[in-house]
């Protein structure tokens, strides 16, 4: 193949521009990315060679080499992994098919544009080489191809790259970085070693560099012909917990997750029994950018007998724990296991169940710890991941009881951190239900008219304001024998919490206001199913509620916003007989035309207070203006 010139994909051009002009903090990250790519290439060869052992050719031992040339001002990262064909070099190094590309560029163009650590999170690590290099040359040959089918790819990181055929006796890839002016720090053995030790010490392949010796005649260190490993080259999860330091656990997490922070918590265990496997699982300290993408594959890497099988093995962790990062190494699964087989395997099911329980145990330890710092960690976890964990209440019935105890809410007694156990411990004498309200925001929930009688009597109400709450409530009906009850559904019934005098007063008011209720129902025909007197209101004139079997107004609005048809049902208008506006209504005679307008305004205001949307806002404004003028 003669030398050919190709243009980069538009997205690659944008990334290269940002890399070369914006990513100038923490430049050393390029070495982590290129060593990681080399490790992946070796893992891929080992996996393909399970069925095609001839791909190893005459080099069964996989390794990575890092070298430099002071005269040529180059740094080279070499591996004897799977390698690239000419077609793959054009496809993989000139285009990006990653869904995170747009988010990556948006982040770089925002406040974090100087943060080179971002590049690893979005699958564009190869291009980090251009942070320190003004030209990159890649020489590669795919395992199994003849020596004369090697390929050389080169680019200065602008709009184009060149590809030509070469003869390459050994399989694998050499990435040669031609350093920019001012980047000579990376032409030192100690500097490269320190970066490898910092980011890549736990890669299970040996990373080799040429040994150095002291040249007494010239009073300087010189490179020897022999190569020596500069990393531990042992899988961290296979070591005993007593041998691994906290710093090593943190560094390994950062390597596999591309996170810049230490994890919130982790668990490292060897499990024996029906299935034998090792798990090293981490909970991040902050939510990733794609947390809400339920189609995203999980963050757990699968190994079988220390052989890398696949990234993002979603079958090993339920969807609601998709934020968990880590490694699971099975001793029982076949080396040629596929994603399809993972879905059906009994061993995988056992691993999934065991790993799920282990993660929940981690969270329980934080949430129930006597140490305030650990409980604070759980509070931080809940802020970032609580909504996702709520998905598990409906998806994981086997662990629902454990998950429910981990839930945290806002309430009329506390803005954050209220567990259902906390709520039950504060029940009033005679209270046998757990009250809650759903709303679009915390302020809307706090100010809802439906809470007035509960606030007056000091009865705690949970304030549920997240989109997932309505769905969760369709699977969560009680806690410790106490049913959950919406304060915005059905007639208010406080049972033993309401004394006989209050009940008698309500009955008398209902009888006294019956003519007004009948007139209101007639005026609101087609809008209100029923109009009745209530004891739930203290300061407000009216509120709207739905029947027990109907969906809440909050859920109906969410379904409509999502473009889904919501079951239509008319609400009930409840009125406060002690309010001045209601008394004014009762004082208007049947011939007064203002009654109808007041009835409509009363209903619309109740709807607005509940968070609803008026079908005819202009008519409401017109009626209010007329009443103000009158």
Description of the structure:
By secondary structure, this protein is of the alpha+beta class. The protein folds into three domains: about 5-230, Heat Shock Protein 90 (2-Layer Sandwich); about 235-380, Ribosomal Protein S5, domain 2; about 495-630, Heat shock protein 90, C-terminal domain (Four Helix Bundle (Hemerythrin (Met), subunit A), Up-down Bundle). Helices cover about 35% and strands about 20% of the residues. The strands form four sheets. The protein has a nine-stranded mixed β-sheet, with helices on one face. α2 (about 30-50) packs across α5, α9 (about 370-395) packs across α14 and α19 (about 595-610) crosses α20. The model is unreliable at about 95-100 and about 110-115 (pLDDT under 50).
Biggest β-sheet: count, sense, barrel?
9 strands, mixed
Number of DSSP E strands: 22
Q: What percentage of residues falls in helices of 4 or more residues?
A: 25-40%
Choose one word for the global shape: elongated
Average of pLDDT: 85
Distance between the termini: 90 Å
| CATH architecture type of the largest domain | 2-Layer Sandwich
Query: Structural class from helices and strands?
Result: alpha+beta
User: Stretches where pLDDT falls below 50 for ≥5 residues?
Assistant: 97-101, 112-117
Whole-number total of structural domains:
3
| Number of distinct helices | 20
What top-tier CATH class of the largest domain fits best?
Answer: Alpha Beta
CATH topology name of the largest domain: Heat Shock Protein 90
In angstroms, what is the radius of gyration?
33 Å
User: Strand portion, in percent?
Assistant: 15-25%
CATH superfamily of the largest domain: Histidine kinase-like ATPase, C-terminal domain
Strand order of the largest sheet: 1-6-5-4-7-3-2-8-9
């Amino acid at each position: 193949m003669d030398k050919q010139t190709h243009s980069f994909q538009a997205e690659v051009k944008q990334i290269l521009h940002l890399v070369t002009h914006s990513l100038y903090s923490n430049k050393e990250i390029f070495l982590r990315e290129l060593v990681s790519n080399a490790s992946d290439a070796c893992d891929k060869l080992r996996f393909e060679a399970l069925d095609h052992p001839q791909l190893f050719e005459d080099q069964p031992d996989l390794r990575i080499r890092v070298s430099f040339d002071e005269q040529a001002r180059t740094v080279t990262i070499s591996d004897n992994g799977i390698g690239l064909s000419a077609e793959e070099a054009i496809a993989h190094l000139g285009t990006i098919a990653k869904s995170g590309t747009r988010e990556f560029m948006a982040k770089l163009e925002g406040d974090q544009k100087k943060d080179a650590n971002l590049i690893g999170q979005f699958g564009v690590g190869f291009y980090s080489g251009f942070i320190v290099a003004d030209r990159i040359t890649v020489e590669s040959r795919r395992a199994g191809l003849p020596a004369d089918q090697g390929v050389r790819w080169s680019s200065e990181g602008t709009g184009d790259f060149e590809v030509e055929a070469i003869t390459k006796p050994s399989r694998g890839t050499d990435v040669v970085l031609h350093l920019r002016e001012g980047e000579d720090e990376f032409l030192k053995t100690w500097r490269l070693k320190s970066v490898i030790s910092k980011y890549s010490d736990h890669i299970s392949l040996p990373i080799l560099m040429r040994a150095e010796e002291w040249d007494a005649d010239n009073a300087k260190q010189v490179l020897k012909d022999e190569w020596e490993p500069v990393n531990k080259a042992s899988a961290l999860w296979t070591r005993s917990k007593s041998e691994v330091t906290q710093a090593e656990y943190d560094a390994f997490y950062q390597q596999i997750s591309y996170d810049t922070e230490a994890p919130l918590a982790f668990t490292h265990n060897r499990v024996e029994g029906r299935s034998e496997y090792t798990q090293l699982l981490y909970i991040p300290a902050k939510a990733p950018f794609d947390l809400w993408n339920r189609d995203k594959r999980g963050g757990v890497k699968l190994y079988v007998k220390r052989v890398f099988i696949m990234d993002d093995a979603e079958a090993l962790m339920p969807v609601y724990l998709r934020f968990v990062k880590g490694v699971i190494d099975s001793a029982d699964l076949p080396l040629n296991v596929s994603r399809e087989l993972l879905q059906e395997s009994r061993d995988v099911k056992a691993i999934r169940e065991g790993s799920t329980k282990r993660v929940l145990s981690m969270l329980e330890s934080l949430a129930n710890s006597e140490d305030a710092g650990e409980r604070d960690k759980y509070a931080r976890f809940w802020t970032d991941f609580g909504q996702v964990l709520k998905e598990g209440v409906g998806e994981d019935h086997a662990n629902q009881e454990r998950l429910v105890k981990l839930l945290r809410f806002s309430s009329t007694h506390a803005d954050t951190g209220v567990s259902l156990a906390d709520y039950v411990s504060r029940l009033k004498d005679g209270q046998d239900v757990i009250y809650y309200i759903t709303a679009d925001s915390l302020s809307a929930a706090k100010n809802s008219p439906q809470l007035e009688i509960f606030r007056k009597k000091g009865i705690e109400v949970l304030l549920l304001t997240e989109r997932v709450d309505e769905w969760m409530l369709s699977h969560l009906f009680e806690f410790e024998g106490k049913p959950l009850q919406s304060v915005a559904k059905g007639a208010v019934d406080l049972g033993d919490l309401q004394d006989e005098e209050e009940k008698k007063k309500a009955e008398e008011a209902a009888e006294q206001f019956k003519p007004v209720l009948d007139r209101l129902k007639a005026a609101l025909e087609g809008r209100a199913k029923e109009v009745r007197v209530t004891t739930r209101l203290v300061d407000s004139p009216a509120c709207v509620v739905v029947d027990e079997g109907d969906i809440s107004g909050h859920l109906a609005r969410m379904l409509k916003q999502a473009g889904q048809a919501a079951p239509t049902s008319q609400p009930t208008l409840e009125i406060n007989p002690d309010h001045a506006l209601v008394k004014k209504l009762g004082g208007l005679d049947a011939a007064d035309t203002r009654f109808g307008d007041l009835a409509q305004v009363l209903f619309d205001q109740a709807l607005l207070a509940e968070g609803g949307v008026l079908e005819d806002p202009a008519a409401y404004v017109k009626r209010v203006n007329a009443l103000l003028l009158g």
